[in-house]
Amino acid sequence: MLTKYTEYLIHQEWMSCALELAKVAGDAGEVPVGAVIIDSTGKLLAQGENRKERDKDPTAHAEILALKTAATTLQNWHLNECTLYVTLEPCPMCAGAILQARVGQLVYGVDDTKTGAIRTVINIPDSAASNHGLQVIGGILESACREQLQAWFATRRRRVN
Predict the structure, then answer these.
(1) Given this model, what pLDDT does residue 161 score?
(2) What residues form the annotated binding site for Zn(2+)?
(3) Would 6 be classed as within a structural domain?
(4) What is the pLDDT of residue 62?
(5) 158 pLDDT exceeds 80?
(6) Percent of the chain having pLDDT more than 90?
(7) In 3-state terms, what secondary structure has residue 95?
(8) What is the mean pLDDT of residues 102-128?
(9) pLDDT band at 124, cuts 50/70/90?
(10) Annotated binding site
C-alpha cells in the first residue's frame, strides 16, 4: 500500500509528463494542454496534446486523443483501471468522454473557470447524468499548469495587439 506522500509524488511525476506535452502543443500554436493515461501498474498507456488547429478537428483535445489511444492499446474502451492526468480541468465534451470510458481516476492540474466540467463551472461526474463514479484529484502542480497557460495566452494577446 502506498502512502499519501508517495501517491502525491507519483501524481507530480505524471503531471510533469503532461506539462511537457502541453508545452509541445503550445509551441505548435495550440492551447497548451497535455494528457497522459497510465494503467494500474503505473505503465504509460497513452498520451495526447491539444491538436485542434493542426488537425482541423474540434474534438482533438488532449484528453480525447489520449482516451482513444489507451482504448486501442488495451483493445478495450473500459478504462476503469486507468488514471488520466491532464494539465487543465476537462471541458464538458472531455468530461463526458472520460465518464463514457469509465476512467478510474482523473488527476488534473488547474481549474478551468470558463469551461471546467469536473468541479469548477459544472460538475458532470457527480450529476444525475453520470453513470460512473469517477475519483477526482485536482490541483496537482497547479501553479506550473496555471503559469504555462497564462504565459501562452499573454504571448498570444501581445501578438494580436
Answers:
(1) 65
(2) 61, 91, 94
(3) no
(4) 98
(5) yes
(6) 91
(7) helix
(8) 96
(9) very high
(10) 61, 91, 94
Tell me the residue type at 46. A
Please count the structural domains in the chain: 1
Residue 16: its H or E element:
helix 4-27
Does the residue 142 lie in any domain? yes
Taken in order 101, 140, 148, 19, the sign of the CA dihedral is: negative
- The domain in which residue 104 lies consists of 27-153
- Residue 22 CA to residue 4 CA, distance in Å, equals 26
Query: Does residue 95 lie in a domain region?
Result: yes
Q: What is the CATH number of the domain that holds 105?
A: 3.40.140.10
What 146-153 contacts at long range (C-beta under 8 Å, 24+ apart), as own/partner pairs, is 146/109, 146/110, 148/19, 148/22, 148/23, 148/26, 148/32, 148/87, 149/31, 149/32, 149/87, 149/88, 149/110, 152/26, 152/31, 152/32
Question: C-alpha grid cell for residue 75?
Answer: 483493445
Q: What pLDDT does residue 157 have?
A: 85
Q: Can you tell me the distance from the alpha carbon of 72 to that of 11, in angstroms, rounded to the nearest whole number?
A: 24
Which entry of 30, 63, 81, 142 is annotated as an active-site residue? 63
Residue 86: pLDDT over 80 = yes
- Is 63 one of the catalytic residues? yes
Residue range 31-47: average pLDDT?
98
